[in-house]
Design goal:
The complex is a heterotrimer.
Chain A: H1 23-46, H2 57-82, H3 90-108, H4 121-125, H5 141-165, H6 170-189, E1 201-202, E2 206-207, E3 210-211, H7 215-241, H8 243-260, H9 265-291, E4 293-294, H10 301-314, H11 320-339, H12 341-358, H13 362-373
Antiparallel strand pairs in A: 1-4, 2-3
Helix pairs in contact in A: 1-7, 2-7, 2-9, 2-10, 2-11, 3-5, 3-9, 5-9, 7-8, 7-9, 8-9, 10-11, 10-13, 11-12
Chain B: H1 13-16, E1 37-48, E2 51-62, E3 66-70, H2 77-85, E4 92-97, E5 101-102, H3 108-114, E6 116-119, H4 131-138, H5 145-150, H6 155-167, H7 183-197, E7 201-205, H8 213-227, E8 231-235, H9 239-246, E9 251-256, E10 259-265, H10 266-271, H11 273-280
Parallel strand pairs in B: 3-8, 3-9, 6-7, 7-8
Antiparallel strand pairs in B: 1-2, 1-4, 4-5, 9-10
Helix pairs in contact in B: 4-7, 6-7, 7-8
Chain C: H1 2-19, H2 27-34, H3 38-51, H4 54-65, E1 68-70, E2 76-80, E3 83-85, E4 92-93, E5 101-102, H5 107-121, H6 127-139, H7 146-155, H8 159-173, H9 179-192, H10 198-201, H11 218-268, H12 275-296, H13 304-328, H14 335-357, E6 373-377, E7 380-383, H15 384-406, H16 408-418, H17 420-425, H18 430-455, H19 462-477, H20 482-522
The chains are: A mainly alpha, B alpha/beta, C mainly alpha.
Chain lengths: 374, 282, 537
């Protein structure tokens, strides 16, 4: 598990604040960041298709999708690895962000849908005459972007307020988050809720005027996701290295002792929880235009629990581990579902059993041990 | 059973400076010490599943006092501390900090912020944090989440941490994880955290438990340091330690079966028949 | 000799009939039947019905069978096979079949004939005929038969039939010009409380276009209003009982599912995400037992549930035992990791079942003694299988309570739940207790699956739909005491079913969830949590 320890010489020369990233980390990450920013557009748009370095639309979409998952994993690590709240409902926030962006994308189809109507196709199909009140304004990108942040954020805040105030902890809390996402999934499956029922939103045509399937758009979305991922990582590092981060870790370890020191855990938990939910929402909003579809199965309890395994595989409480974990697990999933689809679930199930048993600190833990031995 | 209720003699407005005489203004964060008593417990009762842990307990601690509380196991000493710090809500009775702060209506963090610090029987430090981080966490400053997000370690704060490290003789271990310390060192760290907290009232639950003689002596020194700065309530079994702390004039309260059975100087209670019956033995 | 007696009798009858004057039918009366004009035919038929005697009955029956014919001189005859008879005298005549034409009727006339027939049959000597006639008229009431109905009603001796005749009479009497009769009819309907009669009262309380009530007499309106209220109340009572029953039924299943969970969570502090799969294992075990019986013991197929109960218990218990030994034990003290691992186990189990049994549902049918139901109120039938399951759940809870409170194992379980360290210090082999208790909890879930197989579909995802509700029941009820789980599960079942008719199943689930979250604000450890000073700092 993580803690912010640094070795201290005799006279306790402490900096006023722990640095967000160590010097070596900055030195490796900064050039890598700019390199990727430069290379990706070249490989996807300039390099010809036959060339081995070409990045196909499939590759762009796949990696972009996994990066969105990585942001979600990051968010979950913040609440689980650092605050000790195992949320089994984080995919709800992911999906909600996706749905908000999806509303904008559905409106952006304009009159190019199957029914050539200003209303989205599924509404015409259900014989609805006008847009429900909560759809108004979603034709504006800014408004939809605001919703991406507000809707998951508000829901998380409300839920967190009631749950944390009642001091529900541990397993009970996890179960309740699971029930929350399950209930919302059921709600979104209903046609009357106005979000496309079990088909959800799909058949997007354009985003901000650009055709959604064009290589340029895909590359831009990819790079945007990459930037957001990097930004989220740095933001989370900032939080975790601040005093708030230390308090939050104390909440994870011995909450009652912390209360006797005068800290009210509610504010801290709510902050981390809401921030995490908003991060997930943003990840979902980036996910939808790249993948091209959003439906209620995205908020299923099974999806949330999968997010937890990404974090566990990577190493919880390390921030970098979950990003790695998301790539490893989803990479394996792509590979296996293509070749051995029947066995993917066995593999996933086995991972769930094996990782907590034998790799409690995940891949990052293993790497650390190897580095320590050297 | 003699349960004296401590109250300073009534002084007129000319002396206290309080014009209205009876009115006590409840100013947020300030403890009203106009009657020189910092803690009142009046007829506090707590029962768990039918067993009375506290039975009409009444106690008053004067400002600046060091009170030792002794008594057999099960007397309700830890429950009393739970009630004061807000961990347990009493079934009946009143608990006041100063004249105006009703502790039964506040939760643990707010009671801690009001100025009550507690040391537990088992050393409870943050094992996954380093020693200096533990002290930093305990430091008496704004404890809201918003403040800690952007807070930086000022020179003054750093100086305080260094000072406390020196007092508790843990300078060498400043960077070590608290979980790696020995039992006695953890106890001292916890005292250090309490020093950082700068409480007005300190509750110590068997602070010398599990300490070597050397460490106990160190502890006695530290507590003497604190003596002037805050009021203290010390629950102990080690009679030598109690003698060292209370000296000749310090008050000692004896509890048994949920209420006070005797109060006075150590010599006085040692000679009290009731106390000898229930606790000290012959 | 006989022939002359018959003829004599016929002549005497005919003379009596003729003497009775207005009631008797003559050949002239029948003549319009032979004409083409349907209105004339209609009047003739009315006359026949009004006369109401044996001749009329014969004619109507013949008209119903469409065996009434007419000669070229408009003489109406009844054809039976090759003989033609005079309807009035019932004596065969010499006219040949080829000389006659069948009499045609249209639909409305046929309907009149049918109802008239029923009206006359109301007084038939045979009870069966009378009963059928009453049914026919209840189905298709004809106000013009009022007179017949009243006579039949006054003469009827059979109480059941009299009851129905009363209803029939009330039906027609509501249109009667005499307000006293209408009042009587409204009262009668109110007393009977038959929901089918409700529709008759409603028009009485409606207003015409000009604002006046359809029913002019206020006393009749009042009586109708009272009757309606009485019937609505009766209906509401039935719905309440129905909802209560559905809630208890759902609750009993949740109880079986949640009981095992509560025991293991209280004991080990682990929420087992594979718990739903124990339900599934129990259900599939029941399926296998059924198949076994079908193949080898077809004679006693009806009793397969009796064998399925222990089998499903053991199957799930063994699975639980293995899970505990292989996985849970190694993750002791890490509840969140355990949650994840058990989720993995759940995935593996579901996928295994999918691969072995197929992804579709398998067929598990109720034995004959569990099929059908008992009607405790009109319109409310309680199915036997659900009643059986409620009784089963109670028995299981009783046994579980016995095990927990009266056996050594139960004592050890309770001790370990309350204070593991102390129990270990007392010499209790806590690791063994863990395994057996977990197996016991899993076994109970297996029994729940066995019960589920009797009332629902059995498929690989069976456990998934109940797992969240079981968790909620445990959260609500608290752990450590059976009473908590019972109240939690039953309460959850009833509250869900009560909300369902108003908001639908999905919103009911959401509402229940919100209620639980709000409830734990007040009592974070559930309804029946273990009290006492917690041993943490």
């Amino acid at each position: 598990m993580a803690s912010a320890t640094i070795s201290i010489p005799k006279s306790l020369a402490l900096p006023d604040r722990q640095p967000v990233l160590g010097r070596t980390a900055w030195r490796t990450l900064t050039p890598a960041f700019f390199l990727i920013l430069a290379l990706v557009p070249i490989c996807s748009m300039v390099v010809p298709e036959s060339h081995p370095f070409h990045l196909s639309a499939y590759a762009l979409t796949l990696v972009g999708k996994i990066m969105c998952y990585a942001i979600g994993a990051l968010a979950l690590d913040l609440v689980w690895g650092y605050c000790g709240i195992l949320s089994l409902g984080h995919s709800l926030f992911f999906a909600l962000g996706g749905y908000m962006m999806g509303m904008y994308l559905m409106r952006a189809i304009g009159l190019d849908g199957v029914y050539h109507s200003p209303l989205p196709d599924f509404m015409v199909f259900l014989d609805w005459k006008s847009l429900p009140w909560y759809w108004h304004g979603t034709e504006h990108f800014i408004y939809a972007a605001a919703l991406v942040i507000l809707v998951p954020g508000l829901l998380a805040w409300l839920f967190g307020f009631f749950a944390f105030r009642s001091r529900v902890k541990g397993v009970y809390l996890s179960i309740i988050t699971q029930a929350l996402t399950f209930a919302c999934m059921l709600l979104f499956y209903r046609n009357e809720t106005g979000f496309g029922g079990n088909n959800g939103f799909t058949d997007f045509k354009r985003i901000l005027g650009f055709p959604i399937a064009a290589t340029g758009t895909r590359t831009t979305l990819f790079l945007l996701t990459f930037v957001v991922l990097t930004g989220s990582f740095l933001a989370c590092r900032y939080i975790v290295t601040s005093k708030l981060g230390r308090v939050v870790m104390a909440v994870r370890d011995t909450e009652s002792r912390l209360m006797f020191l005068g800290y009210s855990p509610l504010g801290y938990k709510l902050f981390v929880w809401t921030f995490s939910a908003i991060l997930c929402g943003i990840a979902g909003a980036l996910y939808v235009p790249q993948v091209g579809i959003i439906n209620p199965s995205e908020m299923s309890p099974a999806n949330s629990i999968e997010m937890a395994i990404w974090v566990a595989v990577g190493g919880r409480g390390t921030l970098f581990g979950p990003i790695l974990g998301a790539f490893i697990v989803n990479g394996a999933k792509s590979f296996l579902t293509a070749s051995l689809s029947n066995y993917w679930l066995f593999f996933l199930g086995a991972m769930f059993v094996v990782v907590p048993l034998w790799l409690p600190n995940g891949v990052v833990g293993v790497l650390r041990r190897l580095l320590d031995r050297k | 059973m003699n349960t004296p209720k401590n109250q300073a003699p009534d002084r007129g407005p000319a002396e206290t400076g309080d014009v209205s005489g009876l009115a006590h203004l409840n100013i947020a964060g300030q403890i009203d010490l106009s009657h020189k008593v910092i803690l009142y417990l009046e007829d506090v009762s707590v029962s768990f599943d039918g067993i009375k842990a506290l039975n009409q307990l009444s106690l008053a601690i004067e400002n600046g006092e060091l009170r030792c509380i002794i008594g057999p196991n099960g007397a309700g000493k830890t429950t009393m501390m739970d009630v004061i710090t807000g961990k347990t809500k009493p079934d009946g009775g009143r608990v006041f900090l100063g004249q105006t702060i009703d502790l039964t209506r506040l939760d643990e963090p707010r009671i801690a912020r009001a100025g009550i610090g507690r040391k537990f029987q088992k050393p409870t430090v943050f094992e996954q944090h380093s020693v200096w981080e533990n002290l930093d966490l305990a430091m008496n400053e704004d404890k809201s989440w918003f403040h800690t997000l952007g807070s930086r370690l000022s020179k003054k704060a750093l100086a305080r941490i260094e000072e406390t490290l020196g007092l508790i003789r843990l300078e060498q271990q400043a960077g070590r994880l608290a979980g790696e310390l020995s039992h006695g060192q953890k106890q001292l760290l916890e005292i250090g955290m309490l020093l950082m907290q700068e409480p007005r009232l300190l509750l110590l639950d068997e602070p010398a438990a599990g300490m070597s003689d050397h460490e106990t002596a160190q502890l006695a020194e530290l507590l003497n340091l604190l003596r002037g700065k805050c009021s203290m309530v010390v629950v102990e079994h080690d009679m030598e330690f109690v003698a060292a702390l209370s000296g000749r004039d310090g008050k000692v309260t004896v509890m048994a079966e949920g209420s006070v059975i005797s109060e006075g100087t150590l010599d006085h209670v040692k000679r009290d028949e009731v106390v000898i019956e229930s606790y000290l033995g012959r | 000799m006989r022939r002359s007696v018959c003829t004599l009798a016929a002549i005497i009858l005919w003379m009596i009939a003729g003497a009775s004057g207005a009631i008797g039918l003559t050949a002239d009366d029948l003549k319009p039947l032979a004409e083409d004009d349907f209105d004339a035919k209609s009047q003739a038929i009315d006359q026949i019905i009004a006369s109401g005697d044996a001749v009329a009955l014969r004619l109507l029956e013949a008209l119903d069978k469409e065996s009434v014919v007419a000669t070229s001189e408009d003489q109406v005859l009844i054809q039976e096979g090759n003989t033609l008879k005079d309807p009035v005298t019932n004596v065969p005549v010499s006219t040949v079949a080829s000389e006659v034409q069948p009499i045609t009727l249209n639909n409305s006339l046929r309907a009149r004939v049918a109802s008239g027939l029923s009206g006359l049959r109301l007084q038939a000597p045979d009870r069966g005929v009378r009963a059928r006639a009453i049914d026919a008229l209840l189905h298709d009431p004809d106000p013009s038969l009022k007179a017949q109905i009243e006579t039949a009603r006054s003469k009827e001796v059979d109480p059941a039939l009299k009851n129905r005749l009363d209803q029939l009479w009330a039906l027609t009497a509501l249109q009667d010009p005499d307000p006293a009769k209408r009042l009587q009819a409204a009262h009668l309907i109110g007393q009977r409380k038959d929901p089918q009669m409700r529709g008759l009262l409603l028009p009485l309380l409606e207003k015409n276009k000009d604002g006046a009530y359809a029913e002019p007499d206020p006393k009749v309106r009042a009586a109708a209003g009272d009757a309606l209220k009485a019937m609505d109340f009766e209906q509401w009572k039935i719905e309440m009982v129905g909802t209560l029953f559905a809630g208890l039924s759902l609750g009993s299943i949740l109880l079986l599912a949640a009981l095992g969970l509560a025991i293991t969570y209280g004991l080990i502090g682990v929420i087992n995400m594979a718990h739903g799969e124990f339900l599934m294992i129990g259900a599939y075990a029941t399926y296998l037992v059924q198949e076994f019986f079908r193949r080898n013991l077809i004679g006693v197929l009806d009793w397969y549930p009796v064998a399925a109960v222990p089998v499903s218990f053991m199957a799930a218990a063994i699975a639980g035992f293995i899970l505990e030994r292989l996985v849970l034990r190694l993750l002791y003290g890490r509840p969140l990791e355990t949650l994840l691992s058990t989720f993995g186990v759940s995935l593996v189990l579901i996928q295994t079942v999918r691969v072995v049994f197929g992804a579709q549902n398998v067929q598990v049918s109720n034995p004959s003694w569990m099929s059908g139901g008992v009607a405790i109120m009109p319109n409310l039938i309680l199915p036997f299988n659900r009643i059986a399951i409620m009784i089963f759940a109670l028995v299981v809870v009783g046994i579980a309570s016995l095990v927990l409170n009266r056996t050594r194992l139960g004592l050890f379980i309770r001790a370990t739940t309350q204070n593991r360290r102390m129990a270990a210090c007392c010499g209790i082999r806590t690791w063994q207790v863990d395994s057996y208790a977990f197996a016991f909890g899993a076994g109970i879930a297996g029994l729940g699956g066995c019960a589920l197989s009797q009332i629902g579909n059995v498929g690989p995802d069976l456990g998934q739909s109940y797992i969240i509700d079981s968790f909620m029941a445990v959260v609500l009820g608290g752990v450590g005491q059976l009473a908590g789980t019972i109240v939690g599960a039953m309460g959850l079942g009833i509250v869900s079913k009560v909300i369902e008719p108003f908001w639908g199943a999905v919103l009911a689930k959401i509402a229940v969830l919100v209620l639980i979250v709000l409830f734990i604000q007040k009592r974070p450890r559930g309804l029946f949590a273990l009290k006492g000073r917690s041993v943490e700092i």
